[in-house]
Design goal:
about 500 residues; single chain; mainly beta; disordered N terminus; five-stranded mixed β-sheet; about 30% strand; globular
Length: about 500
Amino acid sequence: MQHSGNFTDQTGGRDPNLRVELPERTSTYLSPPVSPPVSPPQKSPSSPHNRVSSPGLESISDLEKKSQAANSEPAEKEHYSRYPTDPEVHEPRTRNTLQQKKWIFGALAILVCIAIGLGVGLGVGLTRGDGRNAKSTPSSSAVIPQEPRNVTAPSTLSRTGAFNGSGIALASQSFDAGGYGSIVMYFQHHTGEIRSAQLSSEGTWDGGDAREIVAVDAKNGTPIAAVAYARNNTAWWHIFYINTNNTITETVNSNKTNVWSPGPINDLNLQAMDSTNVGLQACWYGSFYSDAAYNHSPVPGQTNTTLSSSDQTVGIHLWYANGPTSFQSVGWTYGDTAWQSQQTFDGYNGHAGVGCYSWGPGSATYVFFMDLDDELNILWKDLNTTLKNTTRHPINQWTKTSVTIPTYANSSVGYTNYLYVQSPDLSIAGFNVTWAAENTTINSKDNFTISGDEGLPGTHLSVTALPDRSGGNSLLAFYQTEGSDITEFVRDLDAGQWTSSRVPIPDQ
């Protein structure tokens, strides 16, 4: 639910120029015997944190036990904008004299480069496609996304709290009937380790320290994706990230083993783009995460309780950027031992985020990319091969909707109940999407901007919705506003004001 990095100068002000389906299935549903709620891991006699029902406070990493598109049919483009004109991106809050001098010299250098570029352009011309298909070339008005600043520069490295540019991912903590308001957050600590912290149903955080290490080989600023589900009385947690060799890496845990182990995607040796900002996201597809009845936030077309029925085929789909304008997709079916390569998506910003929605009812699945004009595009694919294929509604083929949303360059994207992006003015905005394949639209009367501190330019973003014991539901959004923080924003699902607080992250 999460993707691209954000970096702020830890010695001064913020710089806005710096910069988380699907094996085939049909809509046929089966009705297997009702499975009892998944039980938490067995209590550890040596641990004082026996109540946690997800990998975390009692987990042992086996990484040394601790150091461990296709031809899409173009649709008429319907540009969605919340602004009469595009707002200006915020300038840095502070800037010292040396930085001003560097800016002047930089501006002169840019003017010289523009003059040279115009001369070359007149001589050889510019070659670009229309960027409208899932597999295409950049659009005529687009510019190839630029490489962000190196996050290893001393002025950008965090020395406390979270890593400056941390990926953020959320997953359910448990799948029992009483699992109200409990989630696990995965993030990158300033030490470079991927760690986890748990939000309890009482609203308090626990973990995030050295006992909660999930991985020790993540690259700086890695995106993080998390998928949690329950099948056959076992709860599973899959965490995806990019390691120091730029390889897509999976680590897996369950409530049976309570040990983080390498996942099967590692066997593919998938190479992500070598950049500080890389799009990556994974989504569960099929029934809503569980074949047991449990409480969750409402999903379009569903109630708050998952029934004991499931799709015929379930699994995980993952997208990752392998180049500045290209994404690859791979899929894993539950019960298989290997992932399968699936498709290439060209003409989209590999430095920006990628999002997906594939766990709702029906046979259509959705993926979201940022195009090269800094606009979010929504693509859909109907996986029900028993339906008749038509020009307007192709079957088993990625097709772009008419909806676009302007975003900040290299924006992250997330979906749970609302579709979230970082707007051009650096605020985080949510959009109510009506999912209907080629007829997908945005309800312009039910959109919002999160009040409070704006996100760092290109901040990673992760969102969710949680049921309350009172019977209501809350929206939650997590992103960085300062660089060493992860800030939580909360609002009632239906309406109300956003409140915020910093997630407590131990320095050690």
